[in-house]
């Protein structure tokens, strides 16, 4: 009798403590995908990296994208509109059944903007969803079909961004685009800094080698609380038969070297992993190496409170 009473008391206490604990209502970033533009499994790949993924949607890795969520104002934003846009928008609206306030684009490579097709007449028939774009990106969308139809039918409302110029999202949140060197065939490429009331996060899904950038990545990592960095390839051995100088990215092993004497290594999370990248597999030697060196790999649904 006493035991049953005591047990009920404990259960009730835990419930009440949980109920009264202050909730963290700060805005946060949620990871919506961690794969390179082609996702994983990757078109035409029958190699070991993808062979077991084709028939198992639970093993699929969606394309690199992050959501910005403000639980206080009920607002959500997305950075990049990927080929997995529909799934990722669903994840984001499940996080916060709020108002979808827009998309910020990094550049015009297929993994980063083609999800905009879902906003058009054939799918959502969206009304004036703000799409934030740099000048060349804006020009590209406005003057090439099918994207120009989104503009003409007012499915999207393009908002012009300027390099290093901050956009205030609300009284809690702001976002700043900054140019990075990349293969800029159709548009320039930017990374973003997102600032909340307490913390800041850097998102650079695509960049050529760090030394081509005018900024010092070590300083950038040290100045921010979290850094989500281009982790496309683990090392140079990853794509036998392809000239990797034509698709330059900082290899994860190079980034770990460059950042080796940074104190806040654990704030670095690699993202935008190619299907061939062994770090996509949580149990691989590459993953262990990254962790043992003090760094991290971004995982879907992971949150970073700002
Ligand atoms: Zn990409
Ligand atoms: Zn593969
Ligand atoms: Zn790219």
Question: How would you sum up the global shape?
Answer: globular
Strand content: 15-25%
List low-pLDDT spans. none
Order of strands in the sheet with most strands:
6-5-4-3-2-1-14
The helical percent reads 10-25%
Bound molecules: zinc ion
Q: Spell the H/E element sequence.
A: HEHEEHEHEHHEEEEEHEHEHEE
Helix/strand-derived category reads: alpha/beta
Radius of gyration: 21 Å
Task: Note the topology.
Elements: H1 2-20, E1 28-33, H2 48-51, E2 65-70, E3 75-79, H3 85-95, E4 99-104, H4 110-113, E5 129-133, H5 135-143, H6 147-152, E6 156-160, E7 167-168, E8 174-179, E9 190-195, E10 200-204, H7 217-223, E11 226-230, H8 252-258, E12 268-271, H9 285-292, E13 296-297, E14 303-305
Parallel strand pairs: 3-4, 4-5, 5-6, 10-11, 11-12, 12-13
Antiparallel strand pairs: 1-2, 1-14, 2-3, 7-8, 8-9, 9-10
